[in-house]
Amino acid sequence: MKFATKAIHAGVHPDESTGAIMTPIYQTSTYVQDGVGNHKGYEYSRTLNPTRHALEKNIAAIENGNFGACFGSGLAAIDCVIKMLNPGDEVISTNDLYGGSYRLFKTIFEKYGIKFHFVDMQHPTNVESHVNADTKLIWVETPTNPMMNIIDIEAMASIAKKAGAMLCVDNTFATPYLQNPLDLGADIVMHSVTKYLGGHSDVVMGALVCNDEEIAKEMYRIQNSTGAVTAPMDSFLVLRGIKTLHLRVQRHCENGEKLANFLVNHPKIEKVYWPGFPTHPNHDVARKQMRGFGGMISFTLKGNRLEDALEVVKKVEIFALAESLGGVESLIGHPATMTHASIPKEVREKTGVVDSLIRLSVGIEDADDLIADLTLALA
Ligand SMILES: *Cc1c(COP(=O)(O)O)cnc(C)c1O
Asked: In the chain, how long is the greatest CA-to-CA distance?
């Protein structure tokens, strides 16, 4: 089946008792058994809930995977992956990483004896030089947040394979419509479902998808043992959201391209970060592994003044000043003081998160209105 058909039909079927075409919200904690151990596949909703189960199958299908698991947030999904490791294990991660992932790695898991290396993964040799016998996981985010760097997933997969380590790709920015890491050799794909998969800024959720049965066993064991599961109502909302994922992402891409071209020609703008430009340093890798360039754009202002950036993000009217991304409405953010405030200034500036950096999550409104909004804010 092709993507659009899977997005709408995978994992779901009409309700057997009523014929309801939409998966019911099974708002229940437990399930009545006919006799001890004689149940219909569901015993307790931390372990499995029918609404969540339908969503897990749906997300697995659109990522071309066999096993899906949904969590209470993207970070809870990442937490599950790191809990597959043991003290003494080492992780090689990109240095230009979602701030919350960095915080989870540094302030939670380091004290349990897991070691993290943060490297510039645009050059695979940087990763190779950190591989040793303890390397058990390579953590990739591509495109990266907020610098829109592209990391070669196939190159990372071959390094991971040689090292005997797992490769996990945070595919939140690209979405399964534009990029499928499992097809490129990744062992696990992770999503902050909160963003494009949900798509309507009304749910916080995470997901993991994998193909390997052993990894899946660990994933479900940890999901059930730690209990960071997502709720039936939220699962329903995301099932609904995913039905239009392909249409939304098509428009995010179209609008993203129009805005990137507008920004790159604007006299007050220093630099625009968007992987669709042929001048983007990893444009070729993006072309190879992505089917479109998305609606995430970052840019800096000439002079690199903090107060100018704060003025722009305050003056916009259609763009909403908010954290998060991937919803139908356009958002504007200031990484240095918002999403990346937990990363020390010296560390963030090294990766390009300077004071005037502004990040856009281009929504699916009319592009002309979005351009007019930015024109006024930049004036
Ligand atoms: C938002 C985000 C996360 C964390 O997800 P939550 O749902 O907020 O916990 C992880 N990675 C990326 C790339 C994100 O944008």
From this structure: 73
Binned at pLDDT 50, 70 and 90, residue 347 comes out as confident
> Is 255 strand, coil or helix?
helix
pLDDT of residue 223: 98
Residue 343 has pLDDT above 80, yes or no: no
For residue 206, which of 192, 195, 219 has the smallest C-alpha distance?
A: 192
Q: Which CATH number fits domain 3-242: 3.40.190.10, 3.40.640.10, 3.30.559.10, 3.40.50.12780?
A: 3.40.640.10
* Cα separations in angstroms, 346 against 104, 147, 343, 353: 19, 16, 8, 10
Residue 115, classed as helix, strand or coil, is strand
Q: With a cut of 80, say whether residue 81 has pLDDT above it.
A: yes
What single letter denotes the amino acid at residue 90? E
Which H helix or E strand runs over 91?
Answer: strand 90-94
pLDDT tier, 340 (very low <50, low <70, confident <90, very high otherwise): confident
- What's the whole-number mean pLDDT along residues 62-72? 98
Catalytic residues: 46, 98, 170, 195
Is residue 346 within 8 A of residue 235, CB to CB? The reply is: no
Which of 188, 194, 359, 361 has most ligand 1 atoms within 8 Å of its beta carbon, as the pocket-test mutant? 194
Mean pLDDT of all residues belonging to the chain? 96
Taking the centre of ligand 1 as the mean of its atom positions, its distance from the CA of residue 268, in whole angstroms, is: 30
300: tokens are 């800096």
- pTM, rounded to two decimals: 0.96
How crowded is the C-beta side of 75, counted as CA atoms within 13 Å?
12
H helices of 119-212, in order, are 124-128, 153-163, 175-178
Cα 145 to ligand 1 centroid, rounded to whole Å: 10
Say which CATH architecture domain 245-378 belongs to. Alpha-Beta Complex (3.90)
The three-state secondary structure class of 356 is coil
DSSP-derived pairing of the beta strands 206-210 and 188-192: antiparallel
pLDDT digits (tens, 9 = 90+) for 22-62: 999 999 999 999 999 899 999 999 999 999 999 999 999 99
Domain ranges across the chain: 3-242, 245-378
Quick check: 369 and 317 in contact, CB under 8 A? no
